[in-house]
Fold each of these.
Amino acid sequence: MQNPADARVDAVSMDEIDAESAVALPNKEVLSLLDINANVDLGLDLAAPVDLAVAANLNVAAPIEAAASANVLSPDATAVGVAEQHGTLDQTISGSATATAPQHADVSQDSTGGQAVDPAAGTAGATPEGAAAGATEPATGATGADVTGGASNLLNGGSLLDANVNIDANANLAAPIDGAVAANANVAAPIDAAVSANIGSAGATAEALAPQELDIHQSLDNVTADATATQDASVNQQ
């Protein structure tokens, strides 16, 4: 077994030391791992003319009658609920319901892109490479991205990830909407209810009576319902 003291130690020569090089790290306040500059340029023209007309002749009647009675844990108690409803209901509509919604819309839209901003310089200038030029075609757009970085960039005072993103989009949106509603209606909803309950009551009596007598007459005499929706829209998009 060889004695470690007798082992030959490889010394580093002066030439090898002179060949070594080192790079000083930047100050902590200028050291950045992530540097992202995003420029979003949107040109939007939105137009939504809405025209609506509603006409209605309505007879609405809703007589409601209710009775409720309850005995809870009450021995030999009696609960009686009676709801009686008697009546005559006459509904008559005579007339016309007319809804007219004429719409005349002239929409002119011009969506042009502005000057893009250079994310690296932070000033306005020409559109950078990789991004769409000031688009004049409707509903178009493009994106551009420039991603650099790395360990060498970080040691030189830059960022581990340096990304510049440019988005340039232009859109023209137009939605003319026209509607008309006309209605004649007779609505009647008589409701009669009776509730009686005995809960945990031995020998108790619960009675619920709900007699309902209604005479309902509904008529529509010489009625008309006219709905007219005329739309004249001129949309010019550039």
Amino acid sequence: MSTNKFDITEDQRDCLQELMNIAYGSATAAISEILDSFATLNIPNIKIIKAEEIKVYLAEQIKVSHPQIVATQLINGKLSGENVFVLDEQSAINMTKVFNEEDEVNDDDVSDVILEITNILSSAATSKLAQLLSTEVSFTSPSIQVIDNIDDFENDFLDDYDQVIIISTQLKFNDFDIQGEMLILTKDESIAWMKNALDVVLEEY
């Protein structure tokens, strides 16, 4: 029996994974249309960890060995948290070249495109998840940072929270050598709300 109020049951996890398949599928379709390229998406991984362990988790998942672009965007509403989009520097450059239809791009171009892509991914994926859970969300403007080591990852968002539910997947565009990690971080009170919302979905189906 669970001893942690933030733990989710196997049925809730399966339900959330299926909803995230739909939500991330919407995001992939939106980006694929813009880049005019087929994308592959891994089965979403769902994990609940202590907020203080987030850097350890990211280090294991992303395996930073060269500069990474990290774009973050806060989610407001009953489903509150943060979207995180991480991709290596070369993938970011490749994505910018495709997005801008130019062979040469500079750092400002890369930042602008990754922020725009983050907006699109957030809108498509998180808004779809919210819709499936019968709620609405809004977003702050995204921000971006370049890190050489996972210890460089700065996130004040997590300081006041105990538990984080991480929903992650890997996005790949083989035609353009582009791959990145997409994560939704959902915290404390939203985890409790999400468990109830998932139970409602399970009852309906």
Amino acid sequence: MCDYSLHALASRPAEVGETLVTAKFPGTSTRGLASEAEPGVAVCILPGTELAFASDVQYDNRWIWTKTIHCRVGKFAAIERDVPHRHHDAIEFPDGSRLLVTQLCEGQRVTVLQLPVLHRKMESLPPTAATDVVPAAAISG
């Protein structure tokens, strides 16, 4: 997912195993995630994606002082989607706290550990032997 303020920028989906960097995008006041090789391209992350930071998470509220969350892992989340024209991209930490991605300090390294499982409707799947259900009695027989 990419926040509403990044829709005018080039973007691409995240890939498992890649290391991203927190960045401020030109022409916006928004921070997000980008590849070091493509600093002007926003990397969009699906809610549920697991992330690992190279060091404790640093953030600010556009003030002089930065703050630290003493945690290096989190899960990407989208908060308050029903509220238009505000940032929704967030990181949820194991203790349940959340931080907007736009509050992350620039230059932090983040590795994409795992993408979420996307569920497809069963009726849209083509019939295959792998989707056939075999009764347990037939196996243990």
Amino acid sequence: MKSSAGASKGSGPTKKRAAKQPNGDPMTMKSKKRKALATAGWRIGEAADFLGLTAEERQLVELRLTLALAIRRQRQANGLSQKQLGERIGTTQPRVAKIEVGAPDVSLDQLVRAYAAAGGRIQCQPPRSPITTKAGRLRVAL
């Protein structure tokens, strides 16, 4: 039996998906909304700015998050469960879940070991020349 709205009775509510922005990133704010917030007195920036992180701290946070995301992708690409990866590195599934989100209590050593155990390969390349490389960054290919 159909109701006057045309939906059949007994059917559950429909779920709406988050609309993606034009660039495909659901976390990017539309310029119109950004302008409205700025007009209302809100400051818009990165978390590192808000937290007052130094350049070194920013790099460390970026490295930890890059490794954490790479671990999850590598594990999934190789068809491993979190439990299986945990067995490879001698830890538990809940610890692997923490590793994959880059929890603050996870050491860089554990992140690197987990990435390697998931089948990843880390290559560190020194900058080609200090003149052409911004701030003499060490390039890490994951």
